[in-house]
C-alpha cells in the first residue's frame, strides 16, 4: 500500500495580499469619513501630510533617532535572548535559574517597565533602549530554548564523537535545527520592538517618531499623526521583506526539497 505524498506548503498569494491591503484602506477611508477629520485623517490626507514632512529637517532627526533606537534595542535584545537560550538549552541548572526572571519579564506589563525606566534613566535613548532590550530578550530566549531541547540527542552525541568545536556545532547543528523558531522569534521581536520603541517615545522621550506622534496628537494634527503611522508600517514591512525573509530563506535552505 503506497503512502500518500506530502504536498509542500503553498506560498502566500501576492494577489490576495494586495486585496487585503485594499480592504484595509477601504476600511480606513470609511472610518475616517464616519469619525471626521479631527479624529481620523483619510489615507489621502495622511499621504499629503507625509509629503510635507519629508521636506522638514526635524522629520529626519526624529526618524533617525527612532531607527537608531530600534536597531540597538532589537539587536541587543535578540542577541541576549539567543545567547542565554543556547546556554540554557545546554545546562538545565542555568535554565532553572533563569526561569523566574523569564516569567517575571513576560508577565509584567510594558507600561510598568516604561514608568520604572523613566525613573531610573530619565528621558532619552537609554530609557527607550533599556525597555526594548528587556521586553525583546524573553521571547527570543523562550524560542531558542524550545528549539535547543528538540535537537536530536544522537546528532549531538555524534558531533561530540567527531570533536566538533562550539562554532561548528552552532553552525552545522544548532542553527539549522533552530531555523524555524528563530525566524518566527525574529519576526515577532522586530515588529514588537518597533511598537515598543514608538510607545516608549510617546510616553517619555524628547525625540523620535513617538515624540512626534505625541506632538501631533496634542495639536490635533491628525494628518501628521497618521502619516507617522504609515511610516511605522512601511518600516516594519521593509524590515520583514528586505531583512527577515532573506534570513529565513538562508537558514531554512537545507529544508527545501531537492530538484534532482
Descriptive labels:
260 residues, mainly alpha, transmembrane helix
Write the layout of secondary structure elements.
Blueprint: H1 14-35, H2 43-53, H3 57-90, H4 92-107, H5 110-121, H6 125-149, H7 153-161, H8 166-177, H9 179-204, H10 209-218, H11 222-251
* DSSP summary, beta strand count: 0
What is the mean predicted local confidence, pLDDT? 81
Distance between the termini: 25 Å
Q: pLDDT below 50 for ≥5 consecutive residues: which ranges? A: none
Count structural domains. 1
The CATH H-level superfamily is MetI-like
CATH class: Mainly Alpha
Here the CATH topology equals MetI-like fold
Beta-strand percentage range: under 5%
Q: What percent of the residues sit in helical stretches (DSSP H or I)?
A: over 70%
Order of helices and strands: HHHHHHHHHHH
Radius of gyration: 22 Å
The appropriate CATH architecture is Orthogonal Bundle
- Major β-sheet annotation: none
Class of secondary structure makeup: mainly alpha
Number of helices: 11
Keywords: Cell membrane, Membrane, Transmembrane, Transmembrane helix, Transport
Pfam families: BPD_transp_1
Organism: Parapusillimonas granuli
Subcellular location: Cell membrane
